[in-house]
Amino acid sequence: MSWEIALIASSAASAGAQVVRGITEARAGQLRADIERGQALQNADLATLEALSDERERRQDFAIWDAEFLSSQYYDGPSFLAKRRDAEETMETDVAMLAQTGKIKSQRFLTTAESKSIERKQLGAGKWFSMVDAGTTLFKGVYEAEHYGPKKSGGLKRIFKDDE
Fold it and tell me: What tens digit of pLDDT does each residue of 44-72 get?
């Protein structure tokens, strides 16, 4: 009877190790996902700030151009206004493209952050499956203890397939 207890104890120890490994791996994965999510959120903020900075810089460039243009040109009617309007429209188009690029970059990072949040939840749920594996290992040990017996030569044999 002692070999059966040893087999069940071994199965219980193996099952416990599976649970600990599963929980530890899941927790490490969750921490990694949290870090990557945080980095993605920071990158999204940086992309937004970069777009705002580029927009501000483009507007400043236009203001400098406009001041230089006004100081170096004499007013010649519609031609002067047309040149300025064309430059202003180009600047507004550039600013709109910079803003859109910033939104797209930011959205990419936000999507990555969301996927890391989902990955974290999945890893949290996955740790419970290690308990299922552990239960299977434990029940396998109990089954083997009930359905196998020692041979006279010291090995194991199936009881219901007894040749004696």
Answer: 999 999 999 999 999 999 999 888 888 87
